[in-house]
């Protein structure tokens, strides 16, 4: 949708790309094409380098030959300085891609009398532009004319004429100017060059220098307005836009293991998101680096490439220490899956660190980056600078779908434990907090997930145990006596176990008792039954005796009657 | 006038060249086209030379419109520029040379500047 718009926009204000990484992003495509741009700053801030790189990149990348007119630096010095950035000026001059002209203005050599103009410079510029067909011109630093010539009125008029002449020529020009008191340049060049003004700055804070660039104005175009740190290194100029990414990077819903199964469980059961940023903060010795090492180990097992920035320990030390918790990282370094980049935080300024990281990441192309610890970088800059640097680092890594694992040492002050990292926590997706729990005369480690964007995570504190078998995460004891860890937890657990055993025994004995009672009862029942049976048999016997007796009586009666010959009885017996 | 601004416009008196003191003056006037300032400079220079250096000077007028590369070689920035190439050291005077006193100082002829 915006493509059409962009084309229309570009037609309104054509831009000439500088080819300098970052600067084109800030200016939305480069410097105003066919117009002069003022680059101002104090001595040694890199104005000339910017100009030279603009020309060299123009010649090499955009096929736009250029003219460099220096007023202070000798051509030999320009060539030498450019070589330190890897540019071969001599070669470009020989190929007619670049034209060097050194203008020497020496006050004591020149006597002024009467009216004059600077047509000489016009002639020289014109000659140079035509010699190579230049599209780009750099005047470095034209202000030195003011020290060489006394008639400022003429100079001002001529500079005004020069800049409009440059516009007429249609060349994209950079005019450098020394920073002045209360003004952008010492002689107010900004009055004449009003299309685009870029200010460079070189500040030293705590013996660490940082270069910064700001687009002061850019007529007819939107531009980044912040101060952007920049570097001049062996690859030339590079500006690092703080927030150029605009949070537009792709997100992955792929989950990767933290290397600690129990921690994965705490993180919604699946671990971290790929491409997310993870912060582990905690006091000294809480196992931050160990978590990092586990994460690296897990990634290496998956065959991913890991880059480990160590700011406290040497690679060998990290490997040795991790071996003590049963983790051998050495095979991964041998296989080339794991690369350590160890340096002291104070070795360079923050921006150089950032640039080094950029370079390493671009070279090594890792899937996982560990920075251990970021808190050490705080020493090299103000919290704000560290924050902005980390923000850019996180953005950079996210744009490449690299999962970033940061550790941060918090102050031991419990109240501040969470506050110390507030500055950076907002740019982190997942924040694990490791803390000491001091109880019963010992310190134990507690781990909890402070936040984890985009997943249901555990809200519980777990005990974090480091042993020679590695990391183990256990539930803490939560009971009437509060949260218990370590031996207190073990003691409590033992107590509970004992109670349970006692209870079990009790139940068992009661059950036995019951069984016994039942047996006794059954025995009683059996006895009663036997007694009853005995009595029953006796009664039956008595009854049968009685019957026999009755029969005997009858038999006897019959026998008696017979013996008396009683007919009646006989009849009664035989009759029917 | 047009002829005079050419390089051929020399004013060298055959008899008075190169004496032992090196008082021969080799002067170059850089102009860019026939602008009023250039014309004025040439006129002023000629008058001054005739007055103070009669017979021992040479003026070469270089039109940078025609020979732009010379501007770089001779480090010319302003127009008009008068360069004293001889005697050494090289001196540069810029402007239309209307101030004779300053011009003479610039040419290192200040002893002749005073009355």
Net shape of chain B: globular
CATH top level of the largest domain in chain A is Alpha Beta
Question: In total, how many domains does the architecture of chain B comprise?
Answer: 1
- Helix and strand composition category of chain B: alpha+beta
SS elements, strand count of chain A: 25
Helix content of chain B: 25-40%
Kindly report the greatest chain-chain contact and the residue count on each side.
Answer: A-B, 25 and 34 residues
| CA radius of gyration of chain A | 48 Å
Using the 3D structure, state the CATH architecture of the largest domain in chain A: 3-Layer(aba) Sandwich
Q: Key features?
A:
heterodimer; A: 576 residues; alpha/beta; Rossmann fold; 2 domains; nine-stranded mixed sheet; 17 helices; rod-shaped; disordered N terminus; B: 115 residues; alpha+beta; Glutaredoxin; four-stranded mixed sheet; 3 helices; 4 strands; 25% helix; globular
Overview of the molecule:
The complex is a heterodimer of chains A (576) and B (115). Chain A is of the alpha/beta class. Chain A folds into 2 domains: 11-239, Rossmann fold; 255-475, Rossmann fold (3-Layer(aba) Sandwich). Helices cover 42% and strands 24% of the residues of chain A. Chain A contains 17 helices and 25 strands. In chain A, the strands form 5 sheets. A 9-stranded mixed β-sheet of chain A has the order 5-4-7-8-3-9-10-11-12, with helices on both faces. In chain A, strands 17-16-18-19-15-20-21-22-23 form a 9-stranded mixed β-sheet, with helices on both faces. In chain A, a hairpin with a 2-residue loop joins β22 (462-467) and β23. The longest helix of chain A has 79 residues, at 486-564. Chain A is rod-shaped, with a radius of gyration of 48 Å. Chain B has helices at 36-52, 69-73, 100-106, and strands spanning 25-31, 57-63, 81-86, 91-94. In chain B, strands 2-1-3-4 form a 4-stranded mixed β-sheet, covered by helices on one side. The A-B interface holds A 101, 103-105, 109-124, 126-128, 145, 149 and B 30, 32, 35, 37, 40-41, 44, 64-65, 68-69, 71-72, 75-81, 90-99, 102-103, 105-106. β6 of chain A pairs parallel with β4 (91-94) of chain B, so a sheet runs across the interface.
């Amino acid at each position: 949708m915006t493509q059409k718009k962009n084309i229309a926009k570009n037609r309104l204000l054509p831009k000439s790309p500088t080819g300098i990484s970052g600067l084109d992003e800030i200016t939305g495509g480069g410097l105003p094409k066919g117009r002069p741009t003022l680059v101002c700053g104090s001595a040694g801030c890199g104005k000339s380098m910017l100009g030279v790189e603009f020309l060299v990149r123009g010649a090499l990348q955009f096929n736009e030959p250029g003219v460099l007119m220096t007023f202070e630096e000798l051509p030999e010095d320009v060539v030498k300085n450019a070589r330190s950035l890897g540019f071969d000026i001599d070669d470009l001059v020989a190929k007619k891609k670049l034209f060097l002209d050194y203008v020497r203005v020496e006050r004591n050599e020149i006597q002024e009398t009467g009216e004059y103009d600077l047509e000489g410079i016009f002639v020289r510029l014109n000659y140079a532009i035509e010699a190579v067909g230049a599209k780009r011109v750099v005047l470095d630093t034209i202000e030195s004319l003011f020290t060489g010539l006394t008639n400022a009125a003429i100079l001002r008029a001529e500079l005004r004429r020069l800049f409009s002449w440059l516009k007429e020529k249609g060349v994209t020009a950079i005019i450098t100017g020394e920073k002045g008191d209360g003004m952008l340049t010492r002689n107010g060049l900004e009055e004449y060059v009003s299309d685009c003004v870029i200010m460079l700055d070189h500040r030293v804070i705590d013996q660490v220098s940082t270069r910064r660039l700001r687009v002061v104005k850019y007529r007819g175009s939107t531009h980044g307005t912040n101060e952007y740190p920049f570097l001049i290194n062996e690859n030339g100029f590079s500006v690092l836009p703080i927030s150029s990414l605009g949070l537009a990077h792709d997100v992955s819903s792929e989950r990767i293991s933290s290397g600690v199964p129990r921690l994965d469980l705490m993180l919604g059961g699946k671990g971290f998101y790929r491409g997310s940023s993870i912060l582990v903060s905690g006091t000294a010795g809480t196992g931050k680096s160990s978590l990092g090492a586990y994460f690296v180990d897990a990634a290496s097992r998956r065959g991913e490439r890991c880059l480990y920035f160590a700011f406290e320990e040497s690679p060998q030390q990290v490997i040795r220490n991790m071996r003590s918790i049963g983790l051998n990282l050495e095979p991964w370094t041998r296989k080339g899956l794991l690369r350590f980049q160890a340096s002291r935080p104070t070795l360079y300024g923050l921006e150089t660190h950032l640039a080094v990281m950029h370079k390493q990441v671009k070279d090594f192309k890792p899937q996982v980056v560990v920075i251990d610890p970021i808190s050490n970088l705080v020493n090299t800059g103000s919290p704000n600078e560290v924050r902005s640097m980390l923000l850019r680092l996180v953005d950079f890594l996210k744009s490449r779908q690299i999962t970033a694992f940061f550790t941060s040492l918090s102050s031991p002050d419990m109240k501040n434990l969470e506050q110390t990292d507030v500055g950076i926590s907002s740019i982190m997706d997942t924040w694990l907090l490791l803390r000491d729990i001091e109880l019963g005369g010992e310190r134990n480690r507690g781990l909890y997930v402070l936040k984890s964007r985009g997943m249901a995570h555990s809200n519980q504190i777990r005990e974090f145990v480091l042993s020679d078998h590695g990391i183990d995460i256990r539930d803490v004891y939560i009971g009437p006596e509060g949260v218990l860890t370590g031996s207190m937890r073990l003691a409590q657990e033992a107590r509970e176990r004992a109670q349970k055993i006692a209870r079990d025994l009790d139940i068992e004995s009661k059950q036995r008792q019951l069984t016994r009672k039942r047996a006794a009862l059954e025995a009683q029942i059996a006895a009663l039954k036997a007694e009853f049976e005995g009595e029953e048999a006796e009664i039956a016997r008595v009854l049968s005796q009685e019957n026999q007796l009755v029969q005997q009586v009858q038999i006897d009666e019959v026998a008696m009657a017979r013996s008396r010959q009683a007919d009646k009885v006989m009849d009664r017996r035989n009759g029917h | 006038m047009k002829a005079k601004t050419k390089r051929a416009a020399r004013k060298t008196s055959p008899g008075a060249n190169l004496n032992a003191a090196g008082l021969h003056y080799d002067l170059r006037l850089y102009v860019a086209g026939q602008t009023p300032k250039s014309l004025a400079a040439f006129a002023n220079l000629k008058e001054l030379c005739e007055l103070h250096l009669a017979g021992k000077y040479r003026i070469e007028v270089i039109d940078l419109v025609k020979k732009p590369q010379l501007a770089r070689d001779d480090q010319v920035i302003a127009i008009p520029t008068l360069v004293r190439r001889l005697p050494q050291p090289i001196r540069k005077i810029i402007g239309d040379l209307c101030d004779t006193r300053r011009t003479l100082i610039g040419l290192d002829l200040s002893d002749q500047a005073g009355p």
